[in-house]
Design brief:
Blueprint (H helix, E strand, L loop, with lengths): L11 H19 L3 H11 L6 H6 L1 H12 L2 H4 L16 H40 L2 H22 L3 E5 L9 E5 L5 H7 L5 E5 L3 H13 L3 E3 L4 H16 L6 E3 L10 E2 L12 E10 L14 H9 L5 E6 L11 H16 L2 E2 L13 H16 L11
Parallel strand pairs: 1-8, 2-5, 2-7, 3-4, 3-5, 6-9
Antiparallel strand pairs: 7-8
Length: 389
Protein backbone atom coordinates (compact mmCIF):
# COMPACT_ATOMS: atom_id res chain seq x y z
CA UNK A 1 0.00 0.00 0.00
CA UNK A 2 1.47 3.44 -0.90
CA UNK A 3 2.65 5.56 2.01
CA UNK A 4 0.45 8.50 1.12
CA UNK A 5 -2.77 6.48 1.29
CA UNK A 6 -4.89 6.25 4.47
CA UNK A 7 -3.32 4.12 7.17
CA UNK A 8 -4.70 0.95 8.68
CA UNK A 9 -7.83 1.38 10.78
CA UNK A 10 -8.31 5.02 9.74
CA UNK A 11 -11.14 6.00 7.44
CA UNK A 12 -10.47 8.03 4.35
CA UNK A 13 -12.56 10.98 5.60
CA UNK A 14 -10.80 10.95 8.97
CA UNK A 15 -7.39 10.88 7.31
CA UNK A 16 -8.04 13.91 5.08
CA UNK A 17 -9.69 15.76 7.97
CA UNK A 18 -6.54 15.24 10.08
CA UNK A 19 -4.31 16.38 7.21
CA UNK A 20 -6.42 19.49 6.73
CA UNK A 21 -6.24 20.35 10.43
CA UNK A 22 -2.46 19.89 10.49
CA UNK A 23 -2.01 22.06 7.38
CA UNK A 24 -4.18 24.75 8.94
CA UNK A 25 -2.07 24.68 12.10
CA UNK A 26 1.11 25.03 10.03
CA UNK A 27 -0.25 28.08 8.23
CA UNK A 28 -1.32 29.63 11.53
CA UNK A 29 2.13 28.97 12.97
CA UNK A 30 4.03 30.44 9.99
CA UNK A 31 1.77 33.48 9.65
CA UNK A 32 1.72 34.39 13.32
CA UNK A 33 0.15 37.78 12.64
CA UNK A 34 -2.91 36.47 10.81
CA UNK A 35 -5.19 36.70 13.88
CA UNK A 36 -4.18 40.31 14.41
CA UNK A 37 -5.01 41.03 10.80
CA UNK A 38 -8.43 39.40 11.14
CA UNK A 39 -9.21 41.36 14.29
CA UNK A 40 -8.12 44.58 12.59
CA UNK A 41 -10.37 43.79 9.65
CA UNK A 42 -13.35 43.27 11.95
CA UNK A 43 -12.62 46.49 13.82
CA UNK A 44 -11.94 48.70 10.82
CA UNK A 45 -14.57 47.18 8.56
CA UNK A 46 -12.34 46.11 5.64
CA UNK A 47 -8.77 45.32 4.73
CA UNK A 48 -8.46 48.50 2.67
CA UNK A 49 -9.29 50.63 5.73
CA UNK A 50 -6.01 49.77 7.48
CA UNK A 51 -3.84 50.54 4.44
CA UNK A 52 -3.41 54.26 5.30
CA UNK A 53 -2.36 53.32 8.83
CA UNK A 54 0.15 50.79 7.54
CA UNK A 55 1.58 53.46 5.28
CA UNK A 56 1.84 55.79 8.27
CA UNK A 57 3.98 53.14 10.00
CA UNK A 58 6.27 52.70 7.01
CA UNK A 59 8.75 55.32 8.27
CA UNK A 60 9.33 53.48 11.54
CA UNK A 61 9.53 50.14 9.74
CA UNK A 62 11.98 51.55 7.21
CA UNK A 63 14.28 52.82 9.98
CA UNK A 64 14.27 49.38 11.62
CA UNK A 65 14.84 47.52 8.34
CA UNK A 66 17.66 49.88 7.34
CA UNK A 67 19.41 49.38 10.67
CA UNK A 68 19.29 45.61 10.20
CA UNK A 69 20.06 45.33 6.49
CA UNK A 70 22.36 48.29 5.81
CA UNK A 71 24.34 49.12 8.95
CA UNK A 72 26.68 51.63 7.35
CA UNK A 73 27.97 52.93 10.67
CA UNK A 74 29.53 49.65 11.85
CA UNK A 75 30.57 48.94 8.26
CA UNK A 76 32.84 52.02 8.47
CA UNK A 77 34.98 50.26 11.09
CA UNK A 78 34.87 46.68 9.79
CA UNK A 79 37.94 44.91 8.47
CA UNK A 80 37.92 43.65 4.89
CA UNK A 81 36.83 40.05 4.42
CA UNK A 82 39.32 38.47 2.02
CA UNK A 83 38.18 35.20 0.46
CA UNK A 84 40.58 32.30 1.05
CA UNK A 85 42.29 31.13 -2.14
CA UNK A 86 44.36 28.20 -0.74
CA UNK A 87 41.49 25.73 -0.97
CA UNK A 88 42.90 23.05 -3.29
CA UNK A 89 45.96 20.79 -3.44
CA UNK A 90 48.04 22.83 -5.92
CA UNK A 91 47.32 26.30 -4.47
CA UNK A 92 47.97 25.31 -0.86
CA UNK A 93 51.74 24.70 -1.36
CA UNK A 94 52.04 28.14 -3.01
CA UNK A 95 50.24 29.72 -0.06
CA UNK A 96 52.60 27.96 2.39
CA UNK A 97 55.59 29.20 0.40
CA UNK A 98 54.23 32.77 0.56
CA UNK A 99 53.70 32.58 4.33
CA UNK A 100 57.25 31.25 4.86
CA UNK A 101 58.69 33.99 2.62
CA UNK A 102 56.82 36.79 4.41
CA UNK A 103 57.43 35.64 7.99
CA UNK A 104 60.87 33.99 7.77
CA UNK A 105 62.62 36.17 5.18
CA UNK A 106 60.94 39.55 4.65
CA UNK A 107 59.82 40.15 8.23
CA UNK A 108 63.27 39.75 9.91
CA UNK A 109 64.85 42.04 7.31
CA UNK A 110 62.13 44.68 7.71
CA UNK A 111 62.21 44.49 11.51
CA UNK A 112 66.00 44.84 11.64
CA UNK A 113 65.76 47.79 9.24
CA UNK A 114 63.18 49.78 11.20
CA UNK A 115 64.80 49.09 14.59
CA UNK A 116 68.14 50.30 13.24
CA UNK A 117 66.55 53.38 11.68
CA UNK A 118 64.71 54.19 14.93
CA UNK A 119 67.88 53.99 17.01
CA UNK A 120 69.77 56.18 14.53
CA UNK A 121 66.88 58.64 14.44
CA UNK A 122 66.86 58.99 18.24
CA UNK A 123 70.65 59.36 18.30
CA UNK A 124 70.87 62.04 15.61
CA UNK A 125 67.78 63.87 16.84
CA UNK A 126 69.24 64.10 20.34
CA UNK A 127 72.54 65.44 18.98
CA UNK A 128 70.88 67.99 16.70
CA UNK A 129 68.43 69.15 19.37
CA UNK A 130 71.14 69.75 21.96
CA UNK A 131 74.02 71.03 19.80
CA UNK A 132 72.42 73.28 17.18
CA UNK A 133 70.21 76.33 17.65
CA UNK A 134 67.76 78.54 15.76
CA UNK A 135 66.77 78.02 12.17
CA UNK A 136 69.55 75.46 11.52
CA UNK A 137 68.14 73.17 14.22
CA UNK A 138 64.59 73.53 12.88
CA UNK A 139 65.66 72.67 9.32
CA UNK A 140 67.76 69.65 10.39
CA UNK A 141 64.96 68.29 12.58
CA UNK A 142 62.47 68.63 9.72
CA UNK A 143 64.82 66.78 7.37
CA UNK A 144 65.32 64.07 9.96
CA UNK A 145 61.56 63.53 10.39
CA UNK A 146 61.20 63.49 6.59
CA UNK A 147 63.90 60.80 6.32
CA UNK A 148 62.47 58.75 9.21
CA UNK A 149 59.06 58.65 7.50
CA UNK A 150 60.70 57.30 4.34
CA UNK A 151 62.38 54.58 6.44
CA UNK A 152 58.97 53.48 7.73
CA UNK A 153 57.56 53.24 4.20
CA UNK A 154 60.54 51.11 3.16
CA UNK A 155 59.90 48.76 6.12
CA UNK A 156 56.47 47.93 4.63
CA UNK A 157 57.85 47.67 1.08
CA UNK A 158 55.62 50.64 0.34
CA UNK A 159 54.60 51.26 -3.26
CA UNK A 160 53.01 54.72 -3.18
CA UNK A 161 51.97 56.54 -6.34
CA UNK A 162 51.52 60.32 -5.99
CA UNK A 163 49.37 62.36 -8.36
CA UNK A 164 49.19 66.13 -8.72
CA UNK A 165 51.37 69.03 -7.50
CA UNK A 166 53.07 68.31 -4.20
CA UNK A 167 52.42 70.58 -1.18
CA UNK A 168 54.64 73.59 -0.53
CA UNK A 169 55.31 75.68 2.55
CA UNK A 170 53.02 78.73 2.38
CA UNK A 171 50.73 80.56 4.75
CA UNK A 172 46.97 80.73 4.38
CA UNK A 173 46.58 77.08 3.37
CA UNK A 174 45.56 73.94 5.23
CA UNK A 175 45.60 70.35 3.90
CA UNK A 176 42.83 67.86 4.69
CA UNK A 177 42.74 64.12 3.93
CA UNK A 178 40.65 61.04 4.60
CA UNK A 179 41.96 58.95 7.50
CA UNK A 180 42.65 55.20 7.68
CA UNK A 181 45.56 54.98 10.11
CA UNK A 182 48.53 56.84 11.56
CA UNK A 183 50.45 55.65 8.51
CA UNK A 184 48.50 58.23 6.46
CA UNK A 185 50.71 60.89 8.03
CA UNK A 186 53.85 58.83 7.35
CA UNK A 187 52.90 58.21 3.70
CA UNK A 188 52.39 61.94 3.14
CA UNK A 189 55.39 63.12 5.19
CA UNK A 190 57.88 61.02 3.23
CA UNK A 191 57.20 63.39 0.31
CA UNK A 192 56.66 66.68 2.17
CA UNK A 193 57.09 67.19 5.93
CA UNK A 194 53.81 68.24 7.58
CA UNK A 195 52.79 69.62 10.89
CA UNK A 196 49.67 67.84 12.03
CA UNK A 197 47.01 67.65 14.71
CA UNK A 198 46.74 64.32 16.49
CA UNK A 199 45.33 62.57 19.55
CA UNK A 200 47.87 62.15 22.36
CA UNK A 201 49.11 58.54 22.47
CA UNK A 202 51.00 56.50 25.04
CA UNK A 203 54.08 54.25 24.84
CA UNK A 204 56.78 54.68 22.24
CA UNK A 205 54.34 56.45 19.90
CA UNK A 206 53.75 59.03 22.63
CA UNK A 207 57.53 59.39 23.06
CA UNK A 208 57.92 60.19 19.34
CA UNK A 209 55.05 62.69 19.62
CA UNK A 210 56.60 64.43 22.62
CA UNK A 211 59.98 64.83 20.93
CA UNK A 212 60.13 64.80 17.15
CA UNK A 213 56.52 65.84 16.54
CA UNK A 214 56.82 68.80 18.89
CA UNK A 215 59.93 69.90 17.02
CA UNK A 216 57.91 70.34 13.82
CA UNK A 217 55.08 72.11 15.67
CA UNK A 218 52.51 69.33 15.64
CA UNK A 219 49.44 69.95 17.80
CA UNK A 220 48.47 67.26 20.30
CA UNK A 221 45.16 67.07 22.13
CA UNK A 222 42.95 64.86 24.26
CA UNK A 223 39.48 64.49 22.73
CA UNK A 224 37.87 64.05 26.17
CA UNK A 225 39.03 67.48 27.39
CA UNK A 226 36.83 70.40 26.36
CA UNK A 227 39.64 72.88 27.17
CA UNK A 228 41.86 71.16 24.60
CA UNK A 229 39.37 71.93 21.85
CA UNK A 230 39.59 75.66 22.49
CA UNK A 231 43.39 75.48 22.61
CA UNK A 232 43.52 73.51 19.36
CA UNK A 233 41.36 76.02 17.48
CA UNK A 234 43.54 78.90 18.67
CA UNK A 235 46.78 77.14 17.73
CA UNK A 236 45.40 76.17 14.33
CA UNK A 237 44.76 79.81 13.47
CA UNK A 238 48.23 80.81 14.68
CA UNK A 239 49.89 78.03 12.67
CA UNK A 240 48.09 78.81 9.40
CA UNK A 241 48.97 82.51 9.68
CA UNK A 242 52.71 81.85 10.24
CA UNK A 243 54.67 81.54 6.93
CA UNK A 244 57.65 79.93 8.70
CA UNK A 245 55.67 76.86 9.83
CA UNK A 246 55.38 73.62 7.88
CA UNK A 247 52.16 72.94 5.93
CA UNK A 248 49.38 71.92 8.32
CA UNK A 249 47.73 68.53 7.74
CA UNK A 250 44.34 67.77 9.32
CA UNK A 251 42.24 64.60 9.22
CA UNK A 252 38.74 66.09 9.65
CA UNK A 253 37.01 62.73 10.16
CA UNK A 254 38.57 62.70 13.63
CA UNK A 255 38.96 58.91 13.69
CA UNK A 256 40.29 56.05 11.57
CA UNK A 257 37.86 54.62 8.99
CA UNK A 258 38.42 51.51 6.86
CA UNK A 259 39.11 53.31 3.55
CA UNK A 260 35.83 52.09 2.06
CA UNK A 261 33.65 54.74 3.71
CA UNK A 262 34.13 58.35 4.77
CA UNK A 263 32.34 59.72 7.85
CA UNK A 264 31.34 63.36 8.35
CA UNK A 265 34.08 66.00 8.44
CA UNK A 266 34.47 68.18 11.52
CA UNK A 267 34.09 71.82 10.57
CA UNK A 268 37.12 73.08 12.55
CA UNK A 269 39.48 72.91 9.56
CA UNK A 270 36.96 74.85 7.46
CA UNK A 271 36.45 77.68 9.96
CA UNK A 272 40.01 79.03 9.70
CA UNK A 273 39.31 81.50 6.91
CA UNK A 274 41.96 80.03 4.62
CA UNK A 275 42.19 77.89 1.49
CA UNK A 276 41.66 74.15 1.95
CA UNK A 277 43.71 71.70 -0.13
CA UNK A 278 42.06 68.24 -0.36
CA UNK A 279 44.18 65.07 -0.38
CA UNK A 280 42.63 61.69 -1.27
CA UNK A 281 44.31 58.46 -0.11
CA UNK A 282 43.29 55.04 -1.39
CA UNK A 283 44.96 51.77 -0.29
CA UNK A 284 44.99 48.52 -2.24
CA UNK A 285 43.79 45.89 0.25
CA UNK A 286 44.89 42.96 -1.90
CA UNK A 287 48.41 43.29 -0.49
CA UNK A 288 47.76 44.50 3.08
CA UNK A 289 44.95 45.48 5.46
CA UNK A 290 45.85 49.08 6.31
CA UNK A 291 42.89 49.93 8.55
CA UNK A 292 43.87 50.43 12.21
CA UNK A 293 41.23 49.98 14.91
CA UNK A 294 42.90 51.37 18.03
CA UNK A 295 40.50 49.55 20.37
CA UNK A 296 41.28 46.14 18.89
CA UNK A 297 45.05 46.28 18.49
CA UNK A 298 48.00 48.38 19.61
CA UNK A 299 49.95 50.37 17.06
CA UNK A 300 52.95 48.07 17.57
CA UNK A 301 50.84 45.02 16.69
CA UNK A 302 49.48 46.91 13.70
CA UNK A 303 52.99 47.70 12.41
CA UNK A 304 54.05 44.08 12.81
CA UNK A 305 50.98 43.10 10.80
CA UNK A 306 52.03 45.47 8.02
CA UNK A 307 55.59 44.16 8.04
CA UNK A 308 54.35 40.57 7.64
CA UNK A 309 52.17 41.54 4.66
CA UNK A 310 53.41 41.62 1.10
CA UNK A 311 53.44 45.40 0.64
CA UNK A 312 51.55 48.62 1.33
CA UNK A 313 50.25 49.82 -2.02
CA UNK A 314 48.45 53.15 -2.26
CA UNK A 315 47.53 56.08 -4.48
CA UNK A 316 47.62 59.68 -3.24
CA UNK A 317 45.94 62.54 -5.08
CA UNK A 318 46.75 66.20 -4.32
CA UNK A 319 43.83 68.34 -5.52
CA UNK A 320 43.43 72.05 -6.21
CA UNK A 321 42.94 74.44 -3.25
CA UNK A 322 39.31 75.21 -2.45
CA UNK A 323 37.74 78.35 -0.99
CA UNK A 324 34.43 78.74 0.81
CA UNK A 325 31.72 79.91 -1.58
CA UNK A 326 29.83 83.16 -0.96
CA UNK A 327 26.64 81.28 -0.07
CA UNK A 328 28.32 78.46 1.88
CA UNK A 329 28.83 78.05 5.60
CA UNK A 330 31.63 75.94 7.09
CA UNK A 331 29.48 72.78 7.22
CA UNK A 332 28.51 73.04 3.54
CA UNK A 333 32.12 73.79 2.64
CA UNK A 334 33.27 70.68 4.55
CA UNK A 335 30.67 68.52 2.77
CA UNK A 336 31.78 69.80 -0.64
CA UNK A 337 35.43 69.01 0.07
CA UNK A 338 34.49 65.61 1.47
CA UNK A 339 32.56 64.85 -1.70
CA UNK A 340 35.64 65.70 -3.80
CA UNK A 341 37.86 63.37 -1.75
CA UNK A 342 35.32 60.52 -1.84
CA UNK A 343 34.85 60.81 -5.58
CA UNK A 344 38.58 60.86 -6.27
CA UNK A 345 39.43 57.95 -3.92
CA UNK A 346 36.35 55.89 -4.80
CA UNK A 347 35.01 55.67 -1.24
CA UNK A 348 31.44 56.09 -0.01
CA UNK A 349 30.39 59.13 2.08
CA UNK A 350 28.05 58.30 4.96
CA UNK A 351 26.10 60.69 7.24
CA UNK A 352 27.68 59.56 10.52
CA UNK A 353 29.78 61.28 13.16
CA UNK A 354 32.90 59.15 13.61
CA UNK A 355 33.09 60.07 17.30
CA UNK A 356 30.13 57.76 17.95
CA UNK A 357 32.69 54.97 17.75
CA UNK A 358 34.03 56.08 21.14
CA UNK A 359 30.77 56.87 22.93
CA UNK A 360 27.55 55.04 23.63
CA UNK A 361 24.29 56.98 23.13
CA UNK A 362 23.23 58.68 26.36
CA UNK A 363 20.15 57.29 28.18
CA UNK A 364 18.45 60.63 27.55
CA UNK A 365 18.95 60.32 23.79
CA UNK A 366 17.78 56.70 23.81
CA UNK A 367 14.66 57.53 25.81
CA UNK A 368 13.86 60.45 23.52
CA UNK A 369 14.06 58.16 20.47
CA UNK A 370 11.84 55.55 22.16
CA UNK A 371 9.24 58.19 23.02
CA UNK A 372 9.24 59.41 19.43
CA UNK A 373 8.65 55.89 18.06
CA UNK A 374 5.98 55.18 20.68
CA UNK A 375 4.18 58.40 19.75
CA UNK A 376 4.15 57.37 16.09
CA UNK A 377 2.82 53.91 16.91
CA UNK A 378 0.07 55.27 19.20
CA UNK A 379 -1.26 57.31 16.29
CA UNK A 380 -1.80 54.05 14.39
CA UNK A 381 -4.09 52.58 17.05
CA UNK A 382 -7.88 52.86 16.56
CA UNK A 383 -9.86 55.21 18.79
CA UNK A 384 -11.66 53.72 21.79
CA UNK A 385 -15.05 53.78 20.07
CA UNK A 386 -13.69 51.44 17.41
CA UNK A 387 -14.27 53.84 14.50
CA UNK A 388 -11.74 55.57 12.31
CA UNK A 389 -11.24 59.32 12.52
Amino acid sequence: MPKDSPGKGIGEDEFFAAESTRASEEVERVTSGIELEREASKTFGSDTAILPRLLDASGVLQDAASAIIDDTFNACFAFSDNTAWNWNFYLFPLWCFGVALRYLVLFPIRLAWIVTCTLLFILFFTIIHNVTRGKLRANLERDLVHLYAACFVISWTGVIKYHGPKPTQRSGHVYVANHTSIIDYIVLTQVTPFSSIAQQNKGWVGFIQNTAMDAIHCIRFNRTESKDREMVQRRLREHVANPDRLPLLIFPEGTCVNNEYCVMFKKGAFDLGCKVCPIAIKYNKIFAETFWHSRRMSFTTYLLKLMTSWAVVADVWYMEPQEMGPTEDSIQFAERVRGMICERAGIKPVPWDGMLKYYRPSPKMTEKRRAQIASNLVKLLPPKDGHLD
